[in-house]
Amino acid sequence: MMDMVEPGAIGAVPAQNIRKSSILWRDVRKNWTSYLFILPNLIGVLVFLAFPVLFAFYMSFTEWDVLTSPKFIGIANYTKLFTDDNLFWTSLWNSTYYVLLTVPASILAGLGLAVAMNQAIRGIAFFRAALYVPVLASAVAVAAVWRWILNSEYGVLNAILEKLHLPSTIGWLTDPHYAMISLAMMGVWKSAGYYAVILFAALQGVPKTLLEAAELDGAGPWRRFINITVPMIAPAILFVAVVAVIGSFQVFDQVFFIDRNGGPGTSTYVYNLHLYNNAFSFFRMGYASAMAYILFAILFVITYLQLRVGRERASGAYDYE
Amino acid sequence: MTPRNYSRRSLLRVAGIAGGAVVAGSASTRVLGRPLVGGNRGTISAYQELPEAELTFYFGANPVEAETRQKVIDKFNEKFPQIKINPVVAGPDPVQELQTQFAGGSGPDIMMAWELTYAGLADREIFADLQTFIDGDAEYQDVVANDHTPELLDMFRYKDAQYVLPEQFTDVVLYYNKAHFEEAGITPPPADWTDSSWNWDKFLETATALTKKSGGRVQQFGFVDAWWPSLSSMVIGTGNGGNWFDRYVNPTAATVTDPKIMEALQWYADLMNVHNVAPNAEQSQTQGGIDVFLAGRASMTLVGHWMYPAMAQLHADGKLDFDIGVLPVGPGGTTAKTDLGGTGLSVSAKTSNQQQAWEFVKYSTGPEGQTVIAESGLFVPVLKSVGQSDSFINAHADVENATVFTNGLQNAVQLPISSKWAELAAAWDRETVKVLQGQAQAADVYPPLEEEMNKILASE
Predict the structure, then answer these.
(1) Mean pLDDT for chain A?
(2) What is the sign of the dihedral through the CA atoms of B255, B256, B257 and B263?
(3) I need a labelling partner for B433 at 20 to 30 A (CA). Which of A226, A243, A302, B344 fits?
């Protein structure tokens, strides 16, 4: 790799640019077979990811119904969203509420499952696999099953509550106060297995020596978990938190398959449902693109803050190494 | 696809080839016709030799309907063997599907169009203006002038163009379970749209008498909505003398705060939430409205003719004894009203085989196609000559009151035709459902809704 950095004959063109591009070009010529192998993927990313992302940015400044030609309207879509669309705010709040309900719950559930997976009991491989099944199940099937679980008349959830002598006439999906909580339960159930696998991998990387040393010093199981295990897996927890926030903010399919109108009322009308309606029911692609970019900006800021705060907190874990 | 359907289609293909050979053999003795648009009056296009074409025909249908649909296609192919029709059954959201297909350059050649949604698609330049074809076709001009129903033609006339020709009239009626009424010894709903004795009070009384409860659970409901409850409540509102738009083709203002409309919505919601003679939101989770009725768990249901073929099938199997009656009239109305609903056929503006596609639309919406439809019992035909014919009545032998379907036409209020319908419906349905589920009162949510709808209508 040393021979790559080689000052060539440079003309009037700024030195840095020509050096960068000639280095890349030289590298391509030298390793052309490798580049040929990644070419299909590269084309895929450019055509199906980079292009739509940039195109959507352009579209967000237009009015476009897919069939007739787009009309440039400047920032009108953005101003309309912020000043003249009540449902924008309603749906933004609904998605935020969903994030607040699901993220802490799924991290805790994922951590609990990861600890359970880490136990040396007979047939643990089966349980590990079983816990991952909800992640793989299709959202349509999950919604169909949960619709029955949550059925207020014949559902198993209310039946269990009845057996426990708890309030058992809750309209899980028909009462606007409970509908979002029900969706959050589904969301946690579906995603906890995924977070558990990541956290489980991190758990296995916690040095046994540290735990044993702590045990010799008289630390109980809980203390060992809080003071050693959790700090050691903090980077993984941070990763899970970031992924969970992004994933939860983008919630769409469960909601869509439970009630595509986001009902009862507007109680489950989440951000992406509003985006979907604008794009595919009202065919306002420009408006929907603007919504997508606002969501991107929100997620960008949140993730940035999470990583900043999280890195400081989690840095202790790296100190050991 | 069932094996039965498949074999029928293969059979059709063989018949098509055989038929094609006959036509080809006689071609020399005939003047070769050309596709005529706006051309010679008096040319009988049925005898034209159109070039071969393979057309995609997109329509919505439940399985029973889809099977009957094929009959019309088969008949058409007897006459035009060189035009192959490939049926494509629509999914749950036809507008979205069509829009996506056309955006991708692969739209169908012939499309079913629905009254509520076609205007939006017409604005996006998907449909050809059929008036051009009608103008060039003396034979069909007669049909339009003398046999078509003007109200339905007007419903599909938008911005001075006939984008769609009506094919079926789909008013909603009240189906009832005869056995339930006989068992309870109650007089069933009347078959005369002008019978004003069948009012809201009488309806509630009947529904109450037919509702059976035991152990805190309802075993049998007096009524269940099997259509679209929000829209049903508006139709009930028009039967109360109300109007929810200033006019129905290209409306300029929503008038949902009309006290007669709000009164009807509240009455309809109370059937579910106060009197509980119809399933409320919680009781509707387990089964859809139509399934509740078909399973004999409700005595009356509001739905259109499109459920008739399925019910007739159950009747033939001895599983359901039913008939139809009219909707109840409200205290503010003079006669009961149903909706002037319908679907029609349209030709794609983008197809390269417009003339062939037109022949199919013309056939299906003309006397021959409509007669096949009437005989099959698939739809309520739109042509006067066919609707009043024996074939329609004979095809509806499972009920005594088949004329309720056709007579609805004289007592129907149109559904709104607006290119803004998708947005209007989203807002209106959202608020109406709140009332229907008992979470809000019509008087509280409708005034702001009307403002919202008017804003949508005013937007360019």
Answers:
(1) 88
(2) positive
(3) B344
Determine the length of chain A. Answer: 321
Same domain, B331 and B236: yes
Interface touch B285/A152, C-beta < 8 Å? yes
Give the Cβ contact number of residue B54 at 10 Å: 12
Contact B433 A67 (CB under 8 A): no
Tokens of A13: 């063109």
Distances (CA, A) of A306 to A102, A103, B230: 16, 13, 45
Same domain, B449 and B302: yes
Are B296 and B348 found together in one domain? no
pLDDT at B29: 30
Q: What is the distance between the alpha carbons of residues B99 and A102, in angstroms, rounded to a whole number?
A: 35
- Statement to judge: residues B71 and B192 lie in one domain: no
Q: Please, what are the averages of pLDDT over each run of 10 residues along chain B (460 residues)?
A: 34 34 32 35 52 93 81 91 93 89 91 94 92 91 90 92 93 95 95 94 96 89 95 96 94 96 97 94 86 94 91 92 96 93 94 93 92 83 83 87 89 92 93 93 95 92
Q: Is B124 on the interface with A (CB under 8 A)?
A: yes
Rounded distance between C-alpha atoms, residue B133 and residue B38, angstroms: 6
The verdict on a CB contact (< 8 Å) between B99 and A265 is no
Main-chain dihedrals φ then ψ at residue B89, nearest 5 degrees:
-90, 130
Give per-residue pLDDT as tens, A246-293.
999 999 998 999 888 887 889 999 999 999 999 988 889 999 999 999
Residues B132 and B29 in one domain: yes
Which pTM was predicted?
0.83
Burial of A95 from C-beta contacts in 10 A (0-12 / 13-18 / 19+)? buried
* Same domain, residue pair B333 and B222: yes
What is the domain range of residue B35? 8-170+340-414
Q: Do B437 and A68 touch (CB under 8 A)?
A: no
* Mutual angle of helices A124-136 and A86-117, in 10-degree steps: 170
Q: Cβ neighbours of residue B323 under 8 Å, at least 6 residues apart?
A: B175, B176, B178, B188, B399, B400, B401
| One domain, residues B352 and B437 | no
Q: ipTM beyond 0.90?
A: no
Q: Does the residue B46 lie in any domain?
A: yes
Least CA distance to A69: which residue of chain B? B124
Q: What does the alpha-carbon distance between residue B109 and residue B58 come to, in Å, rounded to a whole number?
A: 8
Domain count across chain B: 2
Q: Is B213 on the interface with A (CB under 8 A)?
A: no
- For residue B97, what is the domain's CATH number? 3.40.190.10
Residues B183 and B143 in one domain: no
Question: Which amino acid belongs to residue A189?
Answer: W
Last residue of a domain, one of B381, B399, B414: B414
Within-domain flag for B327: yes
CB contact under 8 A, B103 and A261: no
Instruction: Report CA Rg, chain B.
Output: 23
- CA–CA dist B242, B340 (Å, integer): 15
Suggest the residue from B102, B282, B459 to mutate for an interface test with chain A (most A CBs closer than 10 A). Answer: B282
Distance CA B131, CA B154 (A): 12
Cα–Cα distance between B316 and B233 in angstroms, integer?
Answer: 32
Helix (H) / strand (E) containing B356: helix B354-365
User: Which token pair is A101?
Assistant: 């309900």
- Residue B20's pLDDT is 35
Question: Does the residue B2 lie in any domain?
Answer: no
- Asked whether the beta carbons of residue B433 and residue A265 sit closer than 8 angstroms, the reply is yes
Q: How far is B315 from chain A (nearest CA, A)?
A: 30
Contacts of A152 in chain B (CB under 8 A): 282, 285
Q: How far, in Å, CA of B451 to CA of B431, rounded?
A: 12
- Residue B237 counted as domain residue: yes
CA distance, residue A71 to nearest chain B CA (Å)? 13
